[in-house]
Amino acid sequence: MSSSNRNAAGNAVLMATAATIALMATPLAAEPLRHEIVFVDHIEAGLIEQDVFVDRNGEVYRATPDNIDMSADVFTTANPVPHDPGNTEATGPFAKGVPLNMTMGDWLSAAGTGTYVCEDGHGHLQLEFSGLVPDGVYTLWHFFMTAAPTEPFIGTFDLPIGALDGSQATFLADADGNAVFDQTFEDCIQLSGQQLTAGLAVNYHSDDKTYGVLPGDFGHNAHIQLFAALPKEPSLTN
């Protein structure tokens, strides 16, 4: 073999080796992260209903799993009422607001399911709801709370899902109380961790207004109808 042929063969081997090394060094695309989501209401979760109230002698009270009348009309409160879902003594009385023109059974008939996908650094939520308030104005919230219960309850940290100005969080129910939420976000949604539980909350606005980065006044014009806890980050479950 001539020197030129030997050089050509050697170059071919080097190029093939370099190509193999480059292929081995190229990271494989991560598999999309996919989660099924099922929403529940407070009563279904064994908690106290938080944001709609029943009348008793001119004042209003929260319903509990063992003291609930599905036929009772529900009301807002005259003033905001902080959430305290695990405290059986935080049921009222509260100053009565306005009627919501539905029963407790109507309120608790809501349901929702869907999927969350994180792929290539972007998040996507596709959710379907039924039994919502007909023609109701809603927002979807990304909440965080301590993984272990605190005494007293210190509340949740609430962010509108997606854009921080709330522009991606709003959706409307149709005349039958059905709704679809289908949004893609610039970043994946933060899941639960070791110290914080993350979740999604469906917020009904009884005044037909939304408030951007704020959910509104709970009990008074903002009412969490459904919620779902998000799973832990995969790195914490392996």
Task: Report on the architecture of this protein.
- With 238 residues, this protein is mostly beta strands.
- The protein has one domain (33-236): Sandwich (Immunoglobulin-like), CATH 2.60.40.
- 11% of the residues lie in helices and 37% in strands.
- The protein is built from two helices and 13 strands.
- It has helices at residues 3-25, 104-107, and strands spanning 33-38, 53-56, 59-61, 73-77, 94-103, 111-119, 122-130, 137-146, 157-160, 170-172, 179-185, 196-205, 222-229.
- The strands form three sheets. Strands 8, 9, 10, 12 and 13 form a five-stranded antiparallel beta sheet that branches. A four-stranded antiparallel beta sheet has the order 1-6-7-11, with no helix packed on it.
- It is globular, with a radius of gyration of 25 Å.
Residues in β-strands, percent: 35-45%
Following the backbone from N to C, one meets helices and strands in this order, namely HEEEEEHEEEEEEEE
Indicate the CATH architecture.
Sandwich
Number of strands: 13
- SSE-based structural type: mainly beta
Radius of gyration of CA atoms, rounded to a whole number: 25 Å
First and last CA, distance: 56 Å
Uncertain segments are 1-28
Main CATH class: Mainly Beta
Quote the CATH topology.
Immunoglobulin-like
